[in-house]
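Annual report, structural modelling task.

Input specification for the tryptophan complex:
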Amino acid sequence: MIFVLAATGSAVGLGNVWKFPYMAGENGGGAFVLVYLACIAVIGVPIMMAEILLGRRGRRSPINTMSELAAEAGASPRWAWLGWIGVISGFLIMSFYSVIAGWALAYVLEAVSGAFDGFTGESSANAFVGHISNPGITAFWHTVFSIMTAVVVAKGVKSGLEKAVRVLMPTLFVLLVLLLGYAINTGYFADGVEFLFNPDFDKLSREGVLSALGHAFFTLSLGMGAIMVYGSYMPEKASIATTTITIAFMDTLVALVAGMAIFPIVFANGLEPGSGPGLVFISLPIAFGQMPGGLLFGTLFFVLLTFAAWTSAISIIEPAIAFLVENRGMGRKKAATVIVGLAWALGLLTVMSFGGWGFEFEFAGAKKTDGFFDILDIATTNFMLPLGGLAIALFAGWVMSGKDTADELHTTQTGWYSLWRVLVRFIAPAGVILFFLHSLGVL
Ligand code: TRP
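The model returned the following structure:
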Protein backbone atom coordinates (compact mmCIF):
# COMPACT_ATOMS: atom_id res chain seq x y z
CA MET A 1 0.00 0.00 0.00
CA ILE A 2 2.78 2.41 0.90
CA PHE A 3 4.60 1.52 -2.30
CA VAL A 4 1.47 2.12 -4.37
CA LEU A 5 0.98 5.51 -2.71
CA ALA A 6 4.58 6.60 -3.21
CA ALA A 7 4.67 5.42 -6.81
CA THR A 8 1.33 7.06 -7.54
CA GLY A 9 2.69 10.25 -6.02
CA SER A 10 5.55 9.97 -8.47
CA ALA A 11 3.40 9.14 -11.47
CA VAL A 12 0.61 11.67 -10.94
CA GLY A 13 1.97 15.14 -11.43
CA LEU A 14 2.28 17.94 -13.92
CA GLY A 15 2.42 15.28 -16.62
CA ASN A 16 -1.23 14.44 -16.09
CA VAL A 17 -2.77 17.83 -15.49
CA TRP A 18 -0.48 20.20 -17.39
CA LYS A 19 1.33 18.21 -20.06
CA PHE A 20 -1.19 15.66 -21.25
CA PRO A 21 -3.93 18.19 -22.11
CA TYR A 22 -1.66 20.60 -23.95
CA MET A 23 0.08 17.85 -25.90
CA ALA A 24 -3.26 16.32 -26.85
CA GLY A 25 -4.35 19.80 -27.88
CA GLU A 26 -1.27 20.46 -30.00
CA ASN A 27 -1.56 17.11 -31.72
CA GLY A 28 -5.19 17.29 -32.70
CA GLY A 29 -6.73 15.26 -29.85
CA GLY A 30 -8.17 11.81 -30.44
CA ALA A 31 -5.42 10.19 -32.49
CA PHE A 32 -2.76 11.32 -30.02
CA VAL A 33 -4.83 10.06 -27.08
CA LEU A 34 -5.36 6.70 -28.74
CA VAL A 35 -1.66 6.18 -29.45
CA TYR A 36 -0.81 7.30 -25.91
CA LEU A 37 -3.30 4.86 -24.35
CA ALA A 38 -2.00 2.01 -26.49
CA CYS A 39 1.57 2.86 -25.47
CA ILE A 40 0.61 2.79 -21.78
CA ALA A 41 -0.99 -0.64 -22.10
CA VAL A 42 1.40 -2.44 -24.42
CA ILE A 43 4.73 -0.75 -23.72
CA GLY A 44 4.41 1.19 -20.46
CA VAL A 45 2.89 -1.45 -18.20
CA PRO A 46 5.26 -4.31 -19.07
CA ILE A 47 8.31 -2.03 -18.86
CA MET A 48 7.13 -0.61 -15.55
CA MET A 49 6.90 -4.15 -14.18
CA ALA A 50 10.42 -4.75 -15.45
CA GLU A 51 11.78 -1.57 -13.88
CA ILE A 52 10.21 -2.30 -10.48
CA LEU A 53 11.48 -5.86 -10.68
CA LEU A 54 15.05 -4.72 -11.33
CA GLY A 55 14.86 -2.24 -8.47
CA ARG A 56 13.57 -4.74 -5.98
CA ARG A 57 16.12 -7.36 -6.95
CA GLY A 58 19.05 -4.93 -6.89
CA ARG A 59 17.94 -2.93 -3.83
CA ARG A 60 20.41 -0.13 -4.52
CA SER A 61 20.67 3.05 -6.59
CA PRO A 62 19.92 2.44 -10.29
CA ILE A 63 23.58 2.60 -11.31
CA ASN A 64 24.65 0.04 -8.70
CA THR A 65 21.58 -2.08 -9.22
CA MET A 66 22.40 -2.37 -12.91
CA SER A 67 26.04 -3.33 -12.34
CA GLU A 68 25.06 -5.83 -9.68
CA LEU A 69 22.32 -7.50 -11.71
CA ALA A 70 24.58 -7.52 -14.77
CA ALA A 71 27.26 -9.29 -12.75
CA GLU A 72 24.68 -11.74 -11.39
CA ALA A 73 23.60 -12.61 -14.93
CA GLY A 74 27.19 -12.75 -16.21
CA ALA A 75 26.58 -9.79 -18.54
CA SER A 76 28.72 -6.79 -19.38
CA PRO A 77 29.31 -4.20 -16.62
CA ARG A 78 28.42 -1.60 -19.25
CA TRP A 79 24.76 -2.05 -18.30
CA ALA A 80 25.52 0.42 -15.51
CA TRP A 81 25.25 3.02 -18.28
CA LEU A 82 21.54 2.61 -18.08
CA GLY A 83 21.71 4.01 -14.57
CA TRP A 84 23.89 6.88 -15.75
CA ILE A 85 21.52 7.88 -18.52
CA GLY A 86 18.75 7.85 -15.94
CA VAL A 87 20.66 10.16 -13.64
CA ILE A 88 21.27 12.58 -16.49
CA SER A 89 17.67 12.51 -17.75
CA GLY A 90 16.37 13.07 -14.23
CA PHE A 91 18.58 16.09 -13.87
CA LEU A 92 17.46 17.51 -17.23
CA ILE A 93 13.77 16.84 -16.52
CA MET A 94 14.00 18.41 -13.07
CA SER A 95 15.37 21.60 -14.62
CA PHE A 96 12.15 22.36 -16.49
CA TYR A 97 9.75 20.54 -14.18
CA SER A 98 10.42 22.94 -11.33
CA VAL A 99 9.87 25.96 -13.57
CA ILE A 100 6.38 24.75 -14.47
CA ALA A 101 5.72 23.80 -10.84
CA GLY A 102 6.73 27.39 -10.10
CA TRP A 103 3.94 28.60 -12.38
CA ALA A 104 1.51 26.54 -10.30
CA LEU A 105 2.88 28.07 -7.11
CA ALA A 106 2.50 31.57 -8.51
CA TYR A 107 -1.08 30.74 -9.48
CA VAL A 108 -1.88 29.89 -5.85
CA LEU A 109 -1.35 33.56 -5.03
CA GLU A 110 -3.29 34.70 -8.10
CA ALA A 111 -6.18 32.49 -7.04
CA VAL A 112 -6.22 33.74 -3.44
CA SER A 113 -6.14 37.34 -4.52
CA GLY A 114 -9.29 36.88 -6.61
CA ALA A 115 -7.46 37.65 -9.85
CA PHE A 116 -9.54 35.05 -11.73
CA ASP A 117 -12.79 36.95 -11.12
CA GLY A 118 -14.51 37.72 -14.39
CA PHE A 119 -11.77 36.13 -16.50
CA THR A 120 -12.63 35.67 -20.17
CA GLY A 121 -10.63 33.61 -22.62
CA GLU A 122 -8.76 36.71 -23.66
CA SER A 123 -8.04 38.24 -20.26
CA SER A 124 -6.94 34.87 -18.86
CA ALA A 125 -4.55 34.36 -21.77
CA ASN A 126 -3.17 37.86 -21.31
CA ALA A 127 -2.65 37.29 -17.60
CA PHE A 128 -0.77 34.06 -18.30
CA VAL A 129 1.46 35.59 -20.96
CA GLY A 130 2.08 38.52 -18.63
CA HIS A 131 3.19 36.11 -15.94
CA ILE A 132 5.57 33.93 -17.95
CA SER A 133 7.14 36.80 -19.81
CA ASN A 134 8.43 38.19 -16.54
CA PRO A 135 11.52 36.05 -15.90
CA GLY A 136 12.25 37.65 -12.54
CA ILE A 137 8.96 36.40 -11.12
CA THR A 138 9.03 32.96 -12.72
CA ALA A 139 12.65 32.48 -11.63
CA PHE A 140 11.62 33.37 -8.09
CA TRP A 141 8.92 30.68 -7.95
CA HIS A 142 11.22 28.20 -9.69
CA THR A 143 13.66 28.84 -6.84
CA VAL A 144 10.98 28.35 -4.19
CA PHE A 145 9.93 25.03 -5.68
CA SER A 146 13.56 23.88 -6.03
CA ILE A 147 14.16 24.59 -2.35
CA MET A 148 10.97 22.78 -1.35
CA THR A 149 12.13 19.72 -3.28
CA ALA A 150 15.68 19.83 -1.93
CA VAL A 151 14.41 20.00 1.65
CA VAL A 152 12.27 16.87 1.33
CA VAL A 153 14.95 14.97 -0.57
CA ALA A 154 17.57 15.91 2.01
CA LYS A 155 15.42 14.30 4.69
CA GLY A 156 15.00 11.01 2.82
CA VAL A 157 12.20 9.94 0.56
CA LYS A 158 10.07 8.00 2.94
CA SER A 159 9.34 10.42 5.74
CA GLY A 160 5.78 11.66 5.64
CA LEU A 161 5.31 11.24 1.92
CA GLU A 162 2.80 8.39 2.07
CA LYS A 163 0.49 10.09 4.52
CA ALA A 164 0.38 13.25 2.47
CA VAL A 165 -0.25 11.34 -0.76
CA ARG A 166 -3.05 9.38 0.90
CA VAL A 167 -5.04 12.54 1.66
CA LEU A 168 -3.98 15.09 -0.92
CA MET A 169 -4.08 12.98 -4.10
CA PRO A 170 -7.74 11.99 -3.65
CA THR A 171 -8.56 15.62 -2.90
CA LEU A 172 -6.93 16.71 -6.14
CA PHE A 173 -8.98 14.09 -7.93
CA VAL A 174 -12.20 15.36 -6.30
CA LEU A 175 -11.38 18.87 -7.50
CA LEU A 176 -10.83 17.59 -11.03
CA VAL A 177 -14.23 15.91 -10.87
CA LEU A 178 -15.72 19.19 -9.68
CA LEU A 179 -14.18 20.91 -12.71
CA LEU A 180 -15.58 18.14 -14.85
CA GLY A 181 -19.04 19.03 -13.47
CA TYR A 182 -18.44 22.65 -14.42
CA ALA A 183 -17.26 21.56 -17.86
CA ILE A 184 -20.41 19.54 -18.43
CA ASN A 185 -22.44 22.68 -17.73
CA THR A 186 -20.58 24.81 -20.27
CA GLY A 187 -22.65 23.27 -23.06
CA TYR A 188 -19.43 22.25 -24.82
CA PHE A 189 -18.86 18.94 -23.10
CA ALA A 190 -19.68 16.94 -26.22
CA ASP A 191 -17.17 18.97 -28.22
CA GLY A 192 -14.49 18.27 -25.62
CA VAL A 193 -15.17 14.55 -25.61
CA GLU A 194 -15.30 14.44 -29.38
CA PHE A 195 -11.98 16.23 -29.59
CA LEU A 196 -10.29 13.87 -27.13
CA PHE A 197 -11.72 10.58 -28.27
CA ASN A 198 -12.51 10.86 -31.96
CA PRO A 199 -9.23 10.04 -33.69
CA ASP A 200 -8.22 11.90 -36.82
CA PHE A 201 -4.84 10.55 -37.82
CA ASP A 202 -4.28 13.28 -40.39
CA LYS A 203 -3.72 15.71 -37.55
CA LEU A 204 -0.93 13.67 -36.01
CA SER A 205 2.57 14.66 -37.18
CA ARG A 206 5.55 12.33 -36.94
CA GLU A 207 6.56 14.35 -33.90
CA GLY A 208 3.08 13.82 -32.44
CA VAL A 209 3.35 10.04 -32.69
CA LEU A 210 6.74 10.01 -30.99
CA SER A 211 5.46 12.41 -28.30
CA ALA A 212 2.61 10.04 -27.50
CA LEU A 213 5.15 7.30 -26.82
CA GLY A 214 7.39 9.66 -24.88
CA HIS A 215 4.52 10.93 -22.81
CA ALA A 216 3.52 7.39 -21.84
CA PHE A 217 6.98 7.08 -20.28
CA PHE A 218 6.94 10.55 -18.78
CA THR A 219 3.56 10.18 -17.11
CA LEU A 220 4.41 6.78 -15.60
CA SER A 221 7.82 8.11 -14.40
CA LEU A 222 9.39 5.38 -16.49
CA GLY A 223 12.72 4.75 -18.17
CA MET A 224 15.21 6.59 -15.96
CA GLY A 225 15.40 4.71 -12.67
CA ALA A 226 12.86 6.69 -10.64
CA ILE A 227 10.51 3.74 -10.32
CA MET A 228 13.54 1.47 -9.93
CA VAL A 229 14.48 3.40 -6.77
CA TYR A 230 10.94 3.05 -5.44
CA GLY A 231 11.02 -0.64 -6.34
CA SER A 232 14.13 -1.02 -4.24
CA TYR A 233 12.00 -0.16 -1.18
CA MET A 234 9.23 -2.57 -2.14
CA PRO A 235 8.64 -5.50 0.20
CA GLU A 236 9.37 -8.98 -1.12
CA LYS A 237 5.83 -10.26 -0.82
CA ALA A 238 4.03 -7.48 -2.68
CA SER A 239 2.79 -8.27 -6.18
CA ILE A 240 4.51 -6.27 -8.89
CA ALA A 241 1.82 -6.93 -11.51
CA THR A 242 -1.11 -5.79 -9.35
CA THR A 243 0.61 -2.65 -8.11
CA THR A 244 1.77 -1.69 -11.61
CA ILE A 245 -1.70 -2.03 -13.07
CA THR A 246 -3.19 -0.04 -10.18
CA ILE A 247 -0.70 2.79 -10.64
CA ALA A 248 -1.08 2.90 -14.42
CA PHE A 249 -4.86 2.89 -14.10
CA MET A 250 -4.97 5.75 -11.59
CA ASP A 251 -2.45 7.77 -13.55
CA THR A 252 -4.43 7.40 -16.78
CA LEU A 253 -7.70 8.18 -15.05
CA VAL A 254 -6.36 11.47 -13.67
CA ALA A 255 -5.07 12.51 -17.10
CA LEU A 256 -8.32 11.68 -18.88
CA VAL A 257 -10.47 13.46 -16.28
CA ALA A 258 -8.20 16.51 -16.50
CA GLY A 259 -8.53 16.45 -20.29
CA MET A 260 -12.31 16.09 -20.20
CA ALA A 261 -12.53 19.00 -17.77
CA ILE A 262 -10.24 21.28 -19.73
CA PHE A 263 -11.33 20.97 -23.37
CA PRO A 264 -14.98 21.96 -22.90
CA ILE A 265 -13.72 25.09 -21.12
CA VAL A 266 -11.29 25.67 -23.98
CA PHE A 267 -14.04 25.47 -26.59
CA ALA A 268 -16.60 27.40 -24.57
CA ASN A 269 -14.21 30.35 -24.30
CA GLY A 270 -12.90 30.45 -27.84
CA LEU A 271 -9.40 29.28 -26.86
CA GLU A 272 -7.06 27.36 -29.16
CA PRO A 273 -6.57 23.68 -28.15
CA GLY A 274 -3.07 23.92 -29.62
CA SER A 275 -2.03 26.97 -27.63
CA GLY A 276 0.79 25.07 -25.93
CA PRO A 277 2.12 24.83 -22.38
CA GLY A 278 -0.19 27.57 -21.10
CA LEU A 279 -3.38 25.65 -21.87
CA VAL A 280 -4.23 24.56 -18.30
CA PHE A 281 -3.15 27.85 -16.77
CA ILE A 282 -5.38 29.77 -19.16
CA SER A 283 -8.47 27.56 -19.25
CA LEU A 284 -9.02 26.54 -15.63
CA PRO A 285 -8.82 30.04 -14.08
CA ILE A 286 -11.80 31.04 -16.27
CA ALA A 287 -13.80 28.28 -14.60
CA PHE A 288 -12.65 29.24 -11.12
CA GLY A 289 -13.49 32.87 -11.81
CA GLN A 290 -17.08 31.93 -12.62
CA MET A 291 -18.08 29.07 -10.34
CA PRO A 292 -19.48 29.61 -6.85
CA GLY A 293 -16.72 29.11 -4.29
CA GLY A 294 -14.18 29.54 -7.07
CA LEU A 295 -11.79 31.46 -4.85
CA LEU A 296 -11.51 28.54 -2.47
CA PHE A 297 -11.51 25.83 -5.13
CA GLY A 298 -9.06 27.66 -7.34
CA THR A 299 -6.63 28.19 -4.49
CA LEU A 300 -6.96 24.61 -3.33
CA PHE A 301 -6.50 23.35 -6.88
CA PHE A 302 -3.17 25.08 -7.44
CA VAL A 303 -1.97 24.11 -3.96
CA LEU A 304 -2.73 20.48 -4.74
CA LEU A 305 -1.22 20.69 -8.22
CA THR A 306 1.97 22.03 -6.65
CA PHE A 307 1.85 19.19 -4.18
CA ALA A 308 1.43 16.62 -6.96
CA ALA A 309 4.41 18.18 -8.74
CA TRP A 310 6.40 18.03 -5.52
CA THR A 311 5.88 14.29 -4.97
CA SER A 312 6.93 13.77 -8.60
CA ALA A 313 9.98 16.01 -8.47
CA ILE A 314 11.31 14.04 -5.51
CA SER A 315 11.31 10.89 -7.60
CA ILE A 316 12.86 12.63 -10.60
CA ILE A 317 16.09 13.44 -8.78
CA GLU A 318 16.21 10.51 -6.39
CA PRO A 319 18.32 8.29 -8.71
CA ALA A 320 21.03 10.97 -8.78
CA ILE A 321 20.86 11.48 -5.02
CA ALA A 322 20.98 7.74 -4.32
CA PHE A 323 24.07 7.45 -6.51
CA LEU A 324 25.96 10.29 -4.77
CA VAL A 325 25.07 8.90 -1.35
CA GLU A 326 26.05 5.31 -2.17
CA ASN A 327 29.11 5.81 -4.34
CA ARG A 328 30.55 9.12 -3.25
CA GLY A 329 29.73 8.79 0.45
CA MET A 330 27.97 12.15 0.35
CA GLY A 331 25.37 13.05 2.96
CA ARG A 332 21.81 13.39 1.66
CA LYS A 333 21.82 17.08 2.47
CA LYS A 334 24.88 17.82 0.42
CA ALA A 335 23.76 15.56 -2.44
CA ALA A 336 20.36 17.28 -2.54
CA THR A 337 21.99 20.70 -2.56
CA VAL A 338 24.37 19.80 -5.39
CA ILE A 339 21.84 18.12 -7.67
CA VAL A 340 18.95 20.51 -7.11
CA GLY A 341 21.35 23.45 -7.35
CA LEU A 342 22.63 22.34 -10.75
CA ALA A 343 19.13 21.59 -12.02
CA TRP A 344 18.01 24.99 -10.75
CA ALA A 345 20.74 26.73 -12.74
CA LEU A 346 19.88 24.84 -15.91
CA GLY A 347 16.22 25.64 -15.24
CA LEU A 348 16.96 29.29 -15.89
CA LEU A 349 17.13 28.35 -19.59
CA THR A 350 13.51 27.25 -19.39
CA VAL A 351 12.59 30.39 -17.49
CA MET A 352 14.13 32.39 -20.32
CA SER A 353 12.53 30.25 -23.02
CA PHE A 354 9.21 31.74 -21.95
CA GLY A 355 10.70 35.02 -20.79
CA GLY A 356 12.08 36.41 -24.02
CA TRP A 357 14.56 33.91 -25.46
CA GLY A 358 12.03 31.63 -27.12
CA PHE A 359 12.98 30.60 -30.65
CA GLU A 360 11.35 28.44 -33.28
CA PHE A 361 12.57 25.29 -34.92
CA GLU A 362 11.15 22.37 -36.75
CA PHE A 363 11.29 18.83 -35.49
CA ALA A 364 9.89 15.73 -37.23
CA GLY A 365 7.24 17.65 -39.07
CA ALA A 366 6.12 19.88 -36.21
CA LYS A 367 6.83 23.52 -35.50
CA LYS A 368 8.21 24.15 -32.02
CA THR A 369 8.15 27.66 -30.61
CA ASP A 370 9.51 27.49 -27.07
CA GLY A 371 13.24 27.24 -27.71
CA PHE A 372 15.39 25.61 -25.05
CA PHE A 373 12.37 24.28 -23.18
CA ASP A 374 11.26 22.31 -26.25
CA ILE A 375 14.78 21.01 -26.81
CA LEU A 376 15.11 19.77 -23.22
CA ASP A 377 11.63 18.30 -23.32
CA ILE A 378 12.09 16.51 -26.65
CA ALA A 379 15.55 15.19 -25.73
CA THR A 380 14.33 13.68 -22.45
CA THR A 381 10.68 12.75 -23.04
CA ASN A 382 10.90 11.64 -26.65
CA PHE A 383 14.36 10.07 -26.67
CA MET A 384 16.06 9.41 -23.36
CA LEU A 385 13.08 7.90 -21.53
CA PRO A 386 12.02 5.54 -24.35
CA LEU A 387 15.68 4.55 -24.84
CA GLY A 388 16.05 3.88 -21.13
CA GLY A 389 12.83 1.88 -21.24
CA LEU A 390 14.09 -0.09 -24.23
CA ALA A 391 17.25 -0.99 -22.34
CA ILE A 392 15.25 -1.99 -19.26
CA ALA A 393 13.03 -4.23 -21.38
CA LEU A 394 16.01 -5.86 -23.09
CA PHE A 395 17.75 -6.42 -19.78
CA ALA A 396 14.74 -7.94 -18.04
CA GLY A 397 13.70 -9.92 -21.10
CA TRP A 398 16.99 -11.15 -22.54
CA VAL A 399 19.79 -10.74 -20.00
CA MET A 400 18.03 -11.98 -16.88
CA SER A 401 16.98 -15.59 -16.84
CA GLY A 402 13.32 -16.51 -17.13
CA LYS A 403 13.59 -18.24 -13.80
CA ASP A 404 14.82 -15.12 -12.00
CA THR A 405 12.19 -12.81 -13.43
CA ALA A 406 9.44 -15.37 -12.77
CA ASP A 407 10.65 -15.57 -9.17
CA GLU A 408 10.44 -11.82 -8.74
CA LEU A 409 6.97 -11.76 -10.25
CA HIS A 410 5.88 -14.61 -7.92
CA THR A 411 4.78 -16.90 -10.65
CA THR A 412 5.85 -19.90 -12.66
CA GLN A 413 6.87 -19.58 -16.26
CA THR A 414 3.34 -19.98 -17.61
CA GLY A 415 0.13 -18.03 -18.29
CA TRP A 416 0.29 -14.29 -17.52
CA TYR A 417 4.02 -14.58 -17.05
CA SER A 418 4.45 -15.76 -20.64
CA LEU A 419 2.39 -12.82 -21.84
CA TRP A 420 4.57 -10.39 -19.88
CA ARG A 421 7.71 -12.03 -21.20
CA VAL A 422 6.59 -11.80 -24.81
CA LEU A 423 5.69 -8.14 -24.27
CA VAL A 424 8.97 -7.28 -22.62
CA ARG A 425 11.20 -9.30 -24.98
CA PHE A 426 9.56 -8.56 -28.32
CA ILE A 427 6.58 -6.25 -28.41
CA ALA A 428 7.79 -3.37 -26.23
CA PRO A 429 11.32 -3.17 -27.71
CA ALA A 430 10.01 -3.51 -31.26
CA GLY A 431 7.40 -0.87 -30.47
CA VAL A 432 9.97 1.65 -29.27
CA ILE A 433 12.21 1.01 -32.28
CA LEU A 434 9.29 1.38 -34.71
CA PHE A 435 8.34 4.70 -33.11
CA PHE A 436 11.91 5.94 -33.51
CA LEU A 437 12.06 4.86 -37.14
CA HIS A 438 8.71 6.48 -37.80
CA SER A 439 9.85 9.79 -36.32
CA LEU A 440 12.90 9.72 -38.59
CA GLY A 441 10.59 9.34 -41.53
CA VAL A 442 11.87 5.86 -42.36
CA LEU A 443 8.43 4.34 -41.86
N1 TRP B 1 5.33 11.22 -13.89
C1 TRP B 1 5.45 12.57 -13.41
C2 TRP B 1 4.36 13.42 -14.01
O1 TRP B 1 3.54 12.95 -14.74
C3 TRP B 1 6.80 13.16 -13.69
C4 TRP B 1 7.92 12.27 -13.29
C5 TRP B 1 8.22 11.86 -12.03
C6 TRP B 1 8.86 11.68 -14.15
N2 TRP B 1 9.28 11.02 -12.06
C7 TRP B 1 9.71 10.88 -13.34
C8 TRP B 1 9.05 11.72 -15.52
C9 TRP B 1 10.71 10.15 -13.92
C10 TRP B 1 10.07 10.99 -16.09
C11 TRP B 1 10.88 10.19 -15.31
O2 TRP B 1 4.30 14.58 -13.76
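The pocket of tryptophan is lined by residues 10-11, 13-16, 93, 218-219, 221, 224, 226, 312, 315-316, 385 (CB under 6 Å).
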